[in-house]
Amino acid sequence: MNPVDLAFASALDQAQLIRDGEVSPVELTELYLERIQRLNPTLGSYFTVAVESALADAKVKTEAIAHCRDRATLPPFWGVPISIKDLNAVAGLPCTYGSQVLKGNMVDYDDAVVARIKQAGFIILGKTATPEVGSMPFTEPDGFPPARNPWNVDYTPGGSSGGAAAAVAAGLCSVAQGSDGGGSVRGPASCCGLVGIKPSRGRISSAPVGERLSGMATNGPLARTVADAAALLDVMSGYVTGDPYWLPAPNPCFLDVARRGSQRGADRPLRVAVAMTLPSVAETIDPVCEKAVLDTVQRLQDFGHHVEPACPSVAGLADPFTVVFRGGIAAAGIPAEAMNAVNRWFMSFADSNGDFLRALAEVQIMARRITAFFDTYDLLLTPTYMSPPIRVGEWANLDPATVVQNVVQWIAPCPPFNASGQPAIAIPAGFSPAGLPIGVQIVGRPAAESTLIAIAAQLEAANPWSHLRPAIAVA
Q: 302: burial class by Cβ within 10 Å (0-12, 13-18, 19+)?
């Protein structure tokens, strides 16, 4: 296998190649480190590249394989490199939260999700770029190079998991950990032609530090294939003592669901609602995004599912959601004067504790209304974003209020399901005239990731995308 094909091989295939002795963890890690050294100055996908620790870990894992009598007993991703978003703690590496004042912030512990990733045998290549405190759907933090879309470097890879998505799309890792508090996994997946899963509330622990958005934010996987995303979700999931929300482990596991779904799809015909726009929030959709949804509708109908226009009411959600969201920004503990203009503007609102709690109660009431919509429907299909990726710096000179207004319109289909805690998946569904990926979002009932994964795997089998590669990544 040539180096480019190896870099773009699925994480599951890489794990099998390592177990079969076709490639070593050292060889695979060195391949990615070379690609990062060559492409990251253009893409800005990594804040920190953990060259020494990654190579040391790869050598230990290569040595262990040489002395392993039964390689089938190894953890599932033994020796496969991965990236971690720089909102999550990795012992021995900086955690900047996208803030220039925290560039030297070394941490001495692993977040629970990172510990699970290590236990699965992954090798951590480094920390990927994020906007300051993960607050924006583009990745252009002050004091750092902007993250750029590998499909067209004049455009954003999205945010806040923009660096993670750019890294996977460019073959700088095979899978990545991201997080999603308002579309921050799904949006970058859509912008970069990837699969991104926002799991149900309680599926993945936020231990040990907790989560500041009252259950609206969660970790999630980014990958080039549904099977890789499902397998990484299996790895990341699970209860940690004291978690405020939790779900039982899936049976069968998500990877098995993906493999079965690619052959059979869902176990029964499903009732699918499709919404092109969100009345009272975002009522205009770009024709390219509309076509992506319509193409997906046709495939779902070809599979025998019943699809009809319908949309849950999200009217009135934006204001209380924003109060909770800016409370999360304030809770980051970074002084306002050290933050960028938009985050300073968010913090200028003097919300009281009572304001926060009233807003949270309103969000929870509306979340019940959103979730009740799924008493009638198994799935909801929407655009992921209302228009293709924006240019890097496109909104840099706008006042903060206008930036936020633009953001709300662009990412409108995503935040309602952070509020409701439901699972959602973004999958590739075409390209814009500028050669930029376009994705669609599929939302499921609470705790029903398996249904989403089965449908996504069926759509992937009918319209494969993992063979597509940005020109910059294969030159």
A: exposed
| Residue 45 falls in the annotated catalytic set | no
Nearest alpha carbon to residue 237 among 195, 188, 268, 198:
198
- The per-residue pLDDT for range 304-360, each reduced to its tens digit, is 999 999 999 999 999 999 999 999 999 999 999 999 999 999 999 989 999 999 999
pLDDT of residue 264: 87
Percent of the chain with pLDDT over 90: 96
pLDDT recorded at residue 248 = 95
Q: Give Rg (Cα) of the chain.
A: 21
85 is a catalytic site residue = yes
Single-letter residue type at 434: A
Could you say which of 85, 118, 127, 198 is catalytic?
Answer: 85
Burial 79-88 (b: 16+ CB within 10 A, else e): bbbbbbbbbb
Percent of the chain with pLDDT over 70: 100
Half-sphere exposure at residue 38, Cβ-oriented, CA atoms within 13 angstroms: 13
Q: How confident is the model over 23-38, as a mean pLDDT?
A: 98
Q: Which among 78, 446, 14, 448 is positioned nearest to 227, based on CA atoms?
A: 14
Choose the catalytic residue: 24, 83, 160, 200: 160
**Could you give the angle at the alpha carbon of 291 between the alpha carbons of 288 and 293, nearest 5°?**
115
Evaluate whether 203 touches 146 at the Cβ level (below 8 Å): no
pTM higher than 0.85, yes or no? yes
The question of whether 184 is a catalytic residue gets the answer yes
Q: In what order do the strands lie in the sheet with 437-444?
A: 46-49, 123-128, 81-85, 175-180, 218-223, 195-198, 424-431, 437-444, 379-383, 271-274, 306-309
Partnered with residue 30 across adjacent β-strands are: none
What number is the average pLDDT over the span 377-405? 98
Decide if pLDDT at 422 tops 90: yes
| Cα 315 from Cα 294, distance rounded (Å) | 24
Q: Are 460 and 412 in contact (CB under 8 A)?
A: no
Q: Which CATH superfamily is domain 3-474 in?
A: Amidase signature (AS) domain (3.90.1300.10)
Q: Which of 83, 184, 214, 237 is catalytic?
A: 184
Average pLDDT value for the chain: 97
Q: Say what the pLDDT of residue 389 is.
A: 98
Structure token pair of residue 355: 């304001």
Q: How far is CA 62 from the centre of its chain?
A: 30
**Cα of 470 vs its chain's centroid, Å:** 19
Q: What are the structural domain ranges in the chain? A: 3-474
Mean pLDDT of 156-183: 98
Give dist(CA 330, CA 347) in Å, integer: 6
In this structure, what DSSP letter does residue 209 have?
T
> What is the C-alpha end-to-end distance of the chain, expressed in Å?
17
